[in-house]
Amino acid sequence: MYLLEIINPNHWTRTWLSQLNTPEWLTAAITITIDVILLAIIAFLTDFIARKVLLNIITRIVKRSKTKWDDYFYERKVFRNLAHLLPAFLVYYAFPIVFDDIPGTILVLQKLVSLYIIVLVVMVANKALRAFEDLTINSEKLVNSPLRTVSQV
Q: pTM value?
């Protein structure tokens, strides 16, 4: 009964479930579940679009460019990992909207998503350093640079 008291009475899902004569004890759980499922679907669609559309555009740009550094970034999948940041930020900023009725959960969930974002940023940084290593190994000008040593630290 506690969840039902904190869910906004004007919430679209609660209104819809009331019209379907759903028992009150079940309404709050279904309302939250539907909100979470919709957020997950939106996040997956955003990830799909970011990977397919943005990466397709980036692939075309990389193939057309004459510079080599972007080829190494593409081979090391730096751009692909960067694309995963978009849905993570979307979810992070959507939590206060989705869980506006349950403010105690917002901070915990945002911290979990922040942790995921930190892991993604570290992965992107690692892959970018590896791409720069590949660039220095194959470049005559940078062959003596200590980038490999620096990246291992």
A: 0.75
Distances (CA, A) of 17 to 1, 32, 39, 91, 124: 15, 12, 19, 25, 43
The three-class DSSP label of residue 14 is helix
What pLDDT digit, counting tens, does each position of 86-140 carry? 999 999 998 888 887 777 888 899 999 999 999 999 999 999 888 888 877 776 6
Angle at 65 between CA 62 and CA 67, to 5 degrees: 100
User: HEC states along 29-89?
Assistant: HHHHHHHHHHHHHHHHHHHHHHHHHHHHHHHHHHHHCCCCHHHHHHHCCHHHHHHCHHHHH
Q: Which residue has the tokens 């019209």?
A: 19
**DSSP letter, residue 7:** S
The 10s digit of each residue's pLDDT in 37-67 is 988 999 999 999 988 888 889 888 888 888 8
